[in-house]
Recover the amino acids of this structure.
C-alpha cells in the first residue's frame, strides 16, 4: 500500500476562498493516482472549532463546513474508490472538542449518561487546585476547573480538548 497524506486545509483550494477543500481534493485525485498512491490518508476533516487544526472534533458525523459538505465527501469517496484509491480517516478518539455534544452533556452532572465519557474529578484545597500534578502535552496543567460543576476535567492536550 502506498499512502498519500492530505492536510485538507492547505492541500488544494477548489472554490477560491483560500482554504483547501473537498472540491480541490477531487480535482487532484488523478494526480495522486499517477504518483502510484493506492490510498489517501486524510488528516482531520470532521466538524471542529479548529483550536488544534481539526484534532478537536466537535462532531464525528459531519464534515467541517470550510471543507465542504457531507454529500461532497460521499462523492469524493465514490470517485476515489472508482479510481482504485482507498481512504483512511484520521480518527481522533482520545479526546473531543469542548464544543462536542458529549462534553456539553457531561457537564450537566454525574447523573448524565455522558458524564463518564470524560475524566471529572474533585480538586484539592477547597476544590480549586487540580486533583494531581499531571501536565498536558501542551504547556500547563492537564486539568481545567469548571465553576458550574465544581470539578476539574482532564485534558491531555489543549484546554479545549477534554
Amino acid at each position: 500500500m502506498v499512502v498519500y497524506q492530505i492536510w485538507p486545509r492547505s492541500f488544494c483550494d477548489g472554490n477560491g476562498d483560500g482554504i483547501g477543500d473537498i472540491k480541490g481534493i477531487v480535482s487532484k485525485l488523478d494526480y495522486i493516482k499517477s504518483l502510484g498512491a493506492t490510498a489517501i490518508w486524510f488528516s482531520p476533516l470532521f466538524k471542529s472549532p479548529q483550536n488544534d487544526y481539526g484534532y478537536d472534533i466537535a462532531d464525528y458525523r459531519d464534515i467541517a463546513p470550510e471543507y465542504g459538505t457531507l454529500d461532497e465527501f460521499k462523492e469524493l469517496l465514490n470517485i476515489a474508490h472508482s479510481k482504485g484509491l482507498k481512504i483512511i480517516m484520521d480518527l481522533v478518539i482520545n479526546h473531543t472538542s469542548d464544543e462536542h455534544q458529549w462534553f456539553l452533556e457531561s457537564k450537566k452532572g454525574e447523573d448524565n449518561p455522558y458524564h463518564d465519557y470524560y475524566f471529572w474529578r474533585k480538586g484539592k484545597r477547597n476544590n480549586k487546585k487540580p486533583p494531581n500534578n499531571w501536565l498536558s502535552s501542551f504547556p500547563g496543567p492537564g486539568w481545567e476547573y469548571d465553576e458550574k460543576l465544581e470539578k476539574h476535567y482532564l485534558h491531555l492536550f489543549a484546554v479545549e480538548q477534554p
Remarks:
- The radius of gyration is 19 Å.
- The chain has two domains: 3-89, 101-154.
